[in-house]
Design goal:
This protein has five helices and no strands. The protein is mainly α. The protein is globular. The two termini are 21 Å apart.
């Protein structure tokens, strides 16, 4: 499994992101490529910004029990699973802007290192 903390894995991931084009067709769901990048950025915003309210303790427990292992496992996710409202991208997104943001978030995470995130929710 690739790691956002490994410099070589990050370089490979950024290369894949840079291969995306505005005309790239969805291979998974219904979002445009700009929407998909914005969708990926939501997770990063949850880590680096206070843009979204933190779930209460009950929801966090439910997520830890039922969701976490599915998200972080090496097994590919099933298609058409439900998602939280903040991850749904309904409006048009600026492809280049969202692409740059995602790459910047990935680089920032790799540079901070795994130890920075130890013990954090």
């Amino acid at each position: 499994m690739k790691s956002v903390f490994n410099k070589d894995d990050v370089a490979e991931t950024i290369e894949l992101i840079n291969r995306l084009r505005l005309e790239s067709k969805a291979q998974w769901g219904k979002m445009s490529v700009g929407q998909m990048l914005a969708h990926c950025n939501v997770s990063c915003e949850m880590v680096y910004a206070d843009k979204y309210p933190r779930p209460n303790i009950f929801i966090r427990l439910i997520m830890k029990i039922f969701v976490k292992n599915k998200v972080v496992s090496e097994k590919p996710s099933a298609k058409n699973l439900p998602t939280s409202p903040q991850f749904k991208m309904l409006d048009i997104k600026d492809f280049e802007f969202e692409k740059k943001r995602l790459i910047d978030f990935i680089i920032k995470t790799q540079e901070l290192g795994e130890e920075h995130f130890d013990g954090k929710i």
